# Entry
Amino acid sequence: MSAKVKRNIIAIGGAALPPEPENLGLVAYFLRQTGRKRPKVCFIGTASGDAESGRLRFYTAFSQFECRPTHLPLFARTPGDLTGLLLEQDAIFVGGGNTRSMLAVWRDWGIDRDLRLAWERGVVLGGSSAGAICWFEQGVTDSIAGPLTALDCLGLLPGSCCPHYDSERARRPTFRRLVARGAIAPGVAADDGAALHYVDDRLAQVVTSRPGAHAYRLRRVGRRAVEERLKARRLASRL
# Structure
């Protein structure tokens, strides 16, 4: 009987690809979960409209490690065999931006189905900001101008997720309010520099690359939201 496939998702609150290239602990951690010496890793920058800046940050960071980086364009000439491209990867990293638009484009191309299939086959999934919340049932998003809102996402992971918990002032009070009102499912939140590592559909551990970065679990008790800080392990700047 074959061993059960281990399904990994690493949801990062923000700053996974920081401007300071000496602090790449989260990138190293992400790659290590593949178990490969030189993993294939694909960047998907749909949420930013495949902006060159995000793609360059990805290559700058990941090229410092023994891996084979590539990217999937959806706003230029798109590869014909998307399923084949994604399933041949060892890891897939999703960048930040407009989550709602990203999900709409993915559904049109069938990327949502391909990502689920990749996850079920053991490809490590993850990303930052939009690339963090997209895996959950719901996320807190600024995709629409005005107040932050709840957004239905892919549903690979249960509950909801809120990124940028410490770096954007409206994130914490909005998430707490949405949970308290029952407008979003209870879930988790991550500061910039904090990552939530899920194995199958359970949170296995929290890791951080910055001092003072944390992750939290929020649940609804009566008409209020109760926030619990999760135990975290601080990573070296580069593993």
Summary: The mean pLDDT is 94. The domain at 8-234 is CATH 3.40.50.880 (Rossmann fold). The chain has one domain: 8-234. The first strand starts at residue 8 and ends at 12.
